[in-house]
Amino acid sequence: MAIKFDIDLTPEDVAQLTSADALAALVQRMGYDTGKRAVVPAQAVGLDGNSDIQHIELLSEDAEGFLRIVFVRMRSVTAKSRNLVVRTFGRQTQDYLLILTSDFEALEFVLIEKLRQQRKGPVGDVITTPQAKVFVVPRRWPQAMLRILRRLTFTACDEAGMPDAILQYSKLMSVFDAAHYSGEYFQNRALFADHFLRTRLRVDPAWIESPNSAFAKVSQLMRRARDRVGGKDEAAIRRELFEPLFGALGFAAQAGKKSNDAAPTADYRLTSPRGAGTHGGSGICVGAVAGRA
To answer: Which residue, among 271, 31, 75, 43, has the nearest Cα to 171 in the 3D structure?
Structure first.
């Protein structure tokens, strides 16, 4: 349970998820405790008599019993069958992350959120309604969801560095919220049209241009940069590292203030070389703060 960062996942890792054992291995790799793994009889959770349910298995439960991961195999994963399972587990006090599938071709990850609502009427008591947050990972073509899937990794710890299931559940909530805006290489919250990002952007000259030359220059500059500029003052770091980097990336860099100036303004204004020195062009303001660390 020493994992502190999200693990790296590849399409090949996801392609191997063809059994409950494989899912349990992934859950363990992600930092969840699988010591209490066990098959759960359908009648034990109130799902007996439902012909859609083929197999239920507890994959993980933290030491305090706050957060559980449960695998459910169904004959067919439909909205009706999913809602039944969510209502059933949502009545329990623990928080649940469910993994649903019928044939392992698609894996449906479901986080149960418990919404508290005040009932209308003279009593006005508070009721809890379970709600499903869902994203689906196609096992054979998971590329678009890899960034989301890897973020399920157990990384939340308390002040003593011990795994904290309550904080982890909060992280999972944010992961499932982000899943609704996620593409293969981006997370878009209505800033651009997805069609623009997936299609039109690819024919833009800047997209088509090869980055190999700039990458080679940046790699050369960053190689042993700590040894070259470590311990030097900010003026030297600007001259020997930042400004050559901006040039390698295709920017004209205009200093916005002198080194060691603590004013809350940008260190540089970056513009297109074609626009620099004429009418200013459009630009980016950056703060080269690493030299002060």
So the answer is: 31
Q: Which two tokens stand for residue 209?
A: 């241009």
Q: Is the dihedral of CA 169, 171, 177, 182 positive or negative?
A: negative
pLDDT for 291 equals 43
The pLDDT value recorded for residue 153 is 96
pTM: 0.64
- Residues 117 and 167 sit within 8 Å (Cβ to Cβ): no
State residue 183's pLDDT score: 59
Query: Domain residues of the chain, as ranges?
Result: 11-195, 210-292
How far is Cα of residue 84 from the mean position of the Cα atoms in its chain? 28
Of 10 and 262, the one with more pLDDT: 10
CA pair distance 141, 37, nearest whole angstrom: 28
Whether 106 and 65 have beta carbons less than 8 Å apart is answered as: no
Closest CA to 108 of 116, 100, 120: 100
Q: What are phi and psi of 254, to 5 degrees?
A: -110, 120
> Alpha carbon of 173 to those of 82, 97, 133: distances in Å?
18, 10, 8
Task: Show the tokens assigned to 240.
Answer: 């020997």
User: Is 271:280 a contact under the CB 8 Å cutoff?
Assistant: yes
Phi, psi dihedral angles at 78 (to 5 degrees) = -120, 170
> Average pLDDT for residues 249-255, to the nearest whole number?
87
